[in-house]
Amino acid sequence: MSSAVVSTSAAQGRPFVFIEEGTEVCPQPSGAELFEGRPPQRAFSTSVFSTPTSKDARLAGVTPASQLAVRPAPEMVSSGIAAMDALTGGLPRGCLTEICGPASSGRTTLLLAALAAATQRGECCVLVDASDALDPQSAAAAGVELDRLLWVRCGENSSEKSLEQLLRATDLLLESGGFGLITLDLGDLPPQAARRIPLTTWFRFRRAVEHTPTVLLAVERQSIAGSCSSLLIKLGLIKLGDRAGKHSADSKFQTPTHAQLLTGLEITAELVRSRMDRKPVRSAEITFASKTAWAG
Question: In 31-106, where does DSSP find H-type helix?
């Protein structure tokens, strides 16, 4: 039989004797034989220190996947455009939705339609306008009830100052609560300025609006919120109508010229990302028309 004396810091310097497997455990020799002046210690078998815990004890704090609560799908509300509701199911409450597209791609059309639908439901709404671009008369003509709309104007200074004011105002609005729809109009900001918003800010916005009945809608030239948005819609312009009702060339994203009287737009909307369903969503695209007020 062989033995070894081991002193550990956990045992505060007290010696322990470890006996090799298969040997008979016997009383430890006297303290004089091991350490002069120390009292004799009890010998322990290695099986005492290697006793495995049971499987049930190790898994006691683990919740099986079958017992995990399924997160309910968010409530969807109308965007104000039937074709868009057919594509996306509407706008999700408690989530961040991004609408992006170039100039004259229908961003303002969809923005005003969403505000009109929300105010007509009796909800109080907010438009945080980064470029002071809203025309109240056009909003009223689109069906927006202005007495239910809070217009936050941030476009009196440079783009950097406007962006800073927009972020501060959004934080305060999300913290206060009570709004059915909060829209952030970043469409007229240069893309390089809009991309300065850190991803952590969008994550904070998403967490602030979560578990609330508020729809958070961001209108931009390009998608900048990344994975923080639950719904991403990309808009594009197909055709432009002139005074005679004819269409110009079919070049995509064509912008109007000064020689044309704009009577309407044919807009394409592509569903790029949706987290509303458990399975991945295939890219889908629709087309809808928008007419100016004087075109009837």
Answer: 31-34, 46-49, 55-58, 82-88
